[in-house]
């Protein structure tokens, strides 16, 4: 699901490769998103490889594909594709297919198990929401000890606020940051009240949390399914 930490995990994978190398000569990170445009991915990869310049823009598509393939075919690479919503055809881009022989890797994040199937992944790793203890640890870290110790009743209210995030790292981060400067019990009481009654009014919800969650809703396949989703949200 959106906000569960897929991009954060991909960042850590990228960082690990950069630190340990392990014979990897090329590490490329591309953000794909729902409006998959092959030419943009191709241009982004060319930029990372140092192939993109004035001459690149004048080339035909087949020549661009060939240039990327030629540059990568004899090198060990890791291609990280963040947030894909449909199958990304590597041959269409020019990226050589990763095999156990060449040691190359393609790692991607997606919200769709169906996409994993189309990409040939038999056993995808699901990034799940945090457990109650993990969620509290993250929220506690974001809020900070000074705020939590500023009133004896705040820790209990803080746990109620953290519970409302349902283990979603995005919500825990944003709401935790928002509450880190709230050092009166009245402010925490209000936060619990708002999250219980109309969470969309909570600071940071409209601009940082809801758009990411809405992205999944917008990509539901039909108006009928969207109506069913809204109905289940109102009457769980």
**What's the count of strands?**
3
Low-confidence stretches: none
The figure for the number of domains is 2
Q: Which structural class is indicated by helix and strand composition? A: mainly alpha
Q: If you had to describe this structure to a student in words, what would you say it looks like?
A:
This protein has helices at about 5-20, 40-50, 55-60, 60-70, 90-95, 115-120, 130-145, 145-150, 155-165, 170-180, 185-195, 205-220, 225-235; strands at about 25-35, 75-85, 105-110. By secondary structure, it is mainly alpha-helical. It folds into 2 domains: about 5-120, no CATH class; about 130-235. It has a 3-stranded parallel sheet, sandwiched between helices. The longest helix has 15 residues, at about 5-20. The model has no long low-confidence stretch (mean pLDDT about 95). This is Disease resistance-like protein. GO terms for molecular function: ADP binding. Keywords: Plant defense.
Q: Could you outline the blueprint of secondary structure elements for this entry?
A:
Elements: H1 6-20, E1 26-33, H2 38-49, H3 54-58, H4 61-72, E2 77-84, H5 90-93, E3 105-108, H6 113-118, H7 132-143, H8 145-148, H9 154-164, H10 169-179, H11 185-197, H12 205-218, H13 223-234
Parallel strand pairs: 1-2, 2-3
Helix pairs in contact: 2-4, 7-9, 7-10, 9-11
Question: Quick gist of this model?
Answer:
The chain has 236 residues and is mainly alpha-helical. Helix content is 56%, strand content 8%.
């Amino acid at each position: 699901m959106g906000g569960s930490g897929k991009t954060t995990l991909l960042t850590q994978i990228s960082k690990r490769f950069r630190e340990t190398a392990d014979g990897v000569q090329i590490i490329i990170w591309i953000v794909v998103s729902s409006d998959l445009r092959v030419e943009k991915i191709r241009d982004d990869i060319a930029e990372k490889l140092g192939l993109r310049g004035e001459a690149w823009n004048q080339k035909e598509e087949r020549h661009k594909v060939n240039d990327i393939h030629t540059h990568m075919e004899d090198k060990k690479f890791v291609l990280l594709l963040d947030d894909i919503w449909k199958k990304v055809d590597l041959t269409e881009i020019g990226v050589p297919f990763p095999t156990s022989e060449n040691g190359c890797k393609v790692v991607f994040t997606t919200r769709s198990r169906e996409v994993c199937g189309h990409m040939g992944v038999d056993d995808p790793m699901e990034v799940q929401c945090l457990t109650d203890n993990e969620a509290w640890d993250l929220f506690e870290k974001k809020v900070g000890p000074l705020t939590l110790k500023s009133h004896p009743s705040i820790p209990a209210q803080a746990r109620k606020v953290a519970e409302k995030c349902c283990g979603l790292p995005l919500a825990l981060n944003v709401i935790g940051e928002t509450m880190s400067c709230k050092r009166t019990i009245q402010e925490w009481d209000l936060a619990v009240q708002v999250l219980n009654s109309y969470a969309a009014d909570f600071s940071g919800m409209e601009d940082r949390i809801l758009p990411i969650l809405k992205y999944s809703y917008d990509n539901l396949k039909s108006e009928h399914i969207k109506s069913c989703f809204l109905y289940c949200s109102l009457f769980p």
